[in-house]
Structure formats: structure tokens, C-alpha cells
Amino acid sequence: MKQPAIIVETSKGNMILPVTNFSKEACVNQLSALIHVDPDKIVQVRASADYGIYAIKEIFPTAREWHTSTVKFSTNEYDTYFIVNYGYILNKRDSNLYPTIMDYKNYLESAVTRFGISLDEARTKFGMYTYKEWNNLLYK
């Protein structure tokens, strides 16, 4: 199952924030919560099916430390800009994908503890389990 999410490009790196949909209101509310700025101060400057560009007219110290400095427009109407890409987060619990190395390690340790078996036995029995299979085994 995929969860809609916005990926906000910031000076601190990309921030992934879940949303209910890609509406202007949903994006503004999440951006507002991230940078601690009143949603009424954030405007959508551009929008497409894949991304949106949001701007803040006033200078807010919290927004300045997060802003995307690479965005330049011909006018200086706004002080701070944010690029917001639209995407999806995969719900790993229901996925038929194989776990990452870190998740695999954690699953193996949980299996060893839960079933009282060695690490090698856990690898042999459950080594090719998907996220879904691991979660069914350990948490149901």
C-alpha cells in the first residue's frame, strides 16, 4: 500500500512528510508544521502534477534556516522558496519486497529471541522472507 507524501527540498536535506493527498492545503499544512510558520503566510507560486513551489513573503527565522536557496525567480516578491515534490511512501509491513540490511538484521535478532534458535538457524529458516512474511511471523 502506498501513502502519499511530499518531499520538501531544504537546506538541511530532503524531508519526507506524509499527506492525505497532494492538495494545496495538505502541502501548505505540512510545510507550515515543518518550518513553524502560519499556513496563511505560505503561498503556492507554481504547481504541476509532480511538484509545487511554495513561498513565504515575510522573513521568518525558522523558514530561513530551512529554505531552498537554489530557487531563483525574476521577481523578488517573496523572501523564501521551497520546492515540494510529490511522491509515495511504500508501507513496508504489507510489502512483498525483501528487507533492507538493517531491517533484516533486526528481524533475525527478533526471531532468535522469540524462537530461542541460533542466528544461523534463523538465517536458514527465514532468510528469504519478505517484509510481509517477517511481520506475519513475528507480530501476528
Describe the structure.
It contains five helices and five strands, in the order ββαββαβααα. The model has no long low-confidence stretch (mean pLDDT 82). A hairpin with a 3-residue loop joins strand 3 and strand 4 (51-56). The longest helix has 15 residues, at 101-115. The protein has two domains: 2-90, no CATH class; 93-139, no CATH class. It is 34% helix and 27% strand. By secondary structure, it is an alpha+beta fold.
Summarize the SSE layout with pairings:
Blueprint: E1 2-10, E2 13-18, H1 24-35, E3 42-47, E4 51-56, H2 61-64, E5 80-90, H3 101-115, H4 119-126, H5 131-139
Antiparallel strand pairs: 1-2, 1-5, 3-4, 4-5
Q: Strand percentage, roughly?
A: 25-35%
What structural class should be given to the helix and strand makeup?
Answer: alpha+beta
Described by strand count, sense and barrel closure, the largest sheet is:
5 strands, antiparallel
**Shape assignment:** elongated
Mean pLDDT: 82
Helix content: 25-40%
- One letter per element, helices H and strands E, the order comes to EEHEEHEHHH
Biggest β-sheet: strands ordered side by side in the sheet: 2-1-5-4-3
Number of contiguous helices: 5
Query: How many individual β-strands?
Result: 5
Q: Please tell me the total number of domains.
A: 2
- The parts where pLDDT drops under 50 for at least 5 residues are none
State the end-to-end CA separation.
19 Å
Structural Rg:
21 Å
